[in-house]
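Sequence only, no structure available. Ideas?
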Amino acid sequence: MASADELTFHEFEEATNLLADTPDAATTSRSDQLTPQGHVAVAVGSGGSYGAEDEVEEESDKAAEQQQQQQPGFWTFSYYQSFFDVDTSQVLDRIKGSLLPRPGHNFVRHHLRNRPDLYGPFWICATLAFVLAVTGNLTLVLAQRRDPSIHYSPQFHKVTVAGISIYCYAWLVPLALWGFLRWRKGVQERMGPYTFLETVCIYGYSLFVFIPMVVLWLIPVPWLQWLFGALALGLSAAGLVFTLWPVVREDTRLVATVLLSVVVLLHALLAMGCKLYFFQSLPPENVAPPPQITSLPSNIALSPTLPQSLAPS
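Reply:
I predicted one. Tokens follow.
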């Protein structure tokens, strides 16, 4: 029987002959690639497959490093540019979803799809503020044509008031709502609130219905103006309630009811504030005061005055 040294020698001789016949072959000496008997394994293949596994790992590591390097910080302009990277079809689809709320149709799940944007909310708020200021001034112009006693002067301060009011509402209310839901998440572990950008997106698109409502408020019929306001408020508030309900329903019934009531109440206060401030029918300071006629007591006799040419000398 041959000894172990002779067997090892013959194996190395066979490996040498095999490498001589196939120059592209490569030997591997890793411990995990040894045969169960401790024999040396010989890998035969093309030269392009040598170290392929190591190259794949190196490429994946380089790709991960490049992705980390390409991700901008929140203080850079490129970080916020991604929130405005939407096309017209996406914005129109989200506007349509906010105008046609349906029970069981979640705005975030069906329209945002984990890609909230700031482009739509920003321009919706800007358009609403501009339309509010312009139509508020047009209301006074039309009122002056119907009643010449009204003295109209351009009220440019309404642009500033409208812009501050709309943008503060579209950012501060979602911030407070998001903070409250995050706090309730610690109390109720089953709750999964939306992100802050998703909450801002929900409120921003919910304000779109107020733009045609404001334009229709130019009709000088008070009851019709209130009717348009109630319809717009109902659509907008319904969209908010249907979107927030999947999040707040995991909480207690009292907290969910109070939270949704506050959301609807704040929305109603915004609509009523716009109606009462920007669409005053006859502002008192713009109406010329009627001439006052004073009457003398009846017991005072008026002395007749004669022309100077007929007066006695």
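Residues 29-53, 283-288 have pLDDT under 50 and may be disordered.
Hope that gets you unstuck.
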